[in-house]
Design a protein that fits this description.
This protein has about 325 residues and is mainly alpha-helical. It contains 18 helices and two strands. The protein has three domains: about 80 residues, Winged helix-like DNA-binding domain superfamily/Winged helix DNA-binding domain (Arc Repressor Mutant, subunit A, Orthogonal Bundle), CATH 1.10.10.10; about 90 residues, Arc Repressor Mutant, subunit A (Orthogonal Bundle); about 120 residues, no CATH class. It is about 65% helix and about 5% strand. Helix 3 packs across helix 5 and helix 8 packs parallel to helix 10.
Length: about 325
């Protein structure tokens, strides 16, 4: 005897999605990835099989995007690959496991200790109300606890961390962790430290815009170009007065680029030239030296190319 399901049952059936999906995973997935996950969840309910090519056609999403999204869903532990296909993981079970696995989250005693700290408890309450509309998942409490311990942030800095990520529409763990790590590497612990860091970043942003304008660059700087400017300013301690000397002196060079500017500024840094006066005095000395060499060569008719060692920087210093 063969039994068939009435097609009308689809009109009255539902595909359940746990609330933890919205609090823990939604912000970390793009639109195509969410679309693919929801359809896979629907198919899994009926134990249906589908090939990636068919999934691409059904959802009108390029195959490469399907493949990348599947990989992201695996990375986020929403699905697990098997020889015969994929398993849709129980995300409620995963989150429960995170909460009660030793050495991954805080012990009950540690959580109780933190709760007794009215300032830290108030900070967590503010984060919950301001950024999660009072519906923060329990696993966030353990994460915040661990970040307090790992980075030694005070309560104001922790609030500022979440506000920074929220304003950039990136309120998910990986991004928050990356920003927290960057702040920690810059020795930020108190709000005063953070204020000084913001002040340095603001000066750096202004410097980047000024350099772009002087070079006639209307596009946004690349990450590598910004890295050069950060090195000149943060590592070398050069402000615009020194950098502008290099910018002015390279006007005679066709299409001066950041690599060439970096050669000049690195050379000055290695020569321990710290101020614009140091650089200007050095350039005068180099110009006089090259002038004397040319005069000597003209009078003697002899040119020692090895001694002169001409390269890009030599041609710069002769101008």
């Amino acid at each position: 005897m063969k039994l068939e399901q009435n097609d009308l049952s689809l009109l009255f059936s539902t595909t359940n999605l746990p609330d933890v999906f919205f609090t823990e995973y939604l912000s970390q997935l793009n639109g195509d990835c969410i679309k693919i996950y929801l359809y896979m969840l629907f198919l899994a309910k009926y134990s249906k099989e589908i090939k990636l090519n068919d999934l691409s056609k059904k959802l009108n999403i390029p195959l490469k995007t399907i493949q990348d999204s599947i990989k992201l869903l695996e990375d986020e532990q929403l699905i697990t690959k098997k020889n015969t296909g994929y398993i849709i993981n129980n995300i409620q079970e995963i989150e429960l496991h995170k909460l009660y696995t030793p050495k991954v989250t805080s012990s009950p005693e540690e959580i109780e200790k933190i709760a007794q700290n009215k300032y830290r408890a108030k900070a967590i309450e503010n984060i919950n109300n301001e950024f999660f509309q009072g519906m923060m998942s329990p696993s966030w409490y353990s994460d915040i606890d661990l970040w307090f311990k790992k980075y030694s942030f005070d309560e104001e800095v922790m609030n500022a961390l979440f506000r920074y990520c929220f304003n950039r529409s990136a309120l998910h763990r990986n991004y928050i962790q990356a920003v927290a790590e960057a702040w920690f590497q810059n020795n930020i612990k108190t709000f005063n430290d953070l204020d000084k860091y913001y002040e340095k970043q603001e000066k750096l942003n202004t410097l980047q815009k000024t350099i772009s304008k002087k070079l006639g660059i209307t596009r946004n700087l690349t990450q590598y170009e910004e890295g050069y400017i950060e090195k000149w300013n943060m590592d070398f301690g050069y402000n615009l007065d020194v950098i502008e000397i290099a910018l002015r002196k390279t006007t005679s060079k066709s299409n001066p680029n950041f690599e060439y500017l970096d050669k000049l500024l690195t050379d000055w840094h290695e020569r321990s030239l710290k101020t614009s006066n140091d650089v200007q005095s050095f350039l005068v000395q180099m110009k006089e030296k090259n002038k004397n060499i040319k005069t000597l060569e003209k009078n003697t008719g002899y040119s020692n190319y090895d001694q002169r060692n001409y390269n890009d920087l030599n041609s710069f210093y002769t101008n």
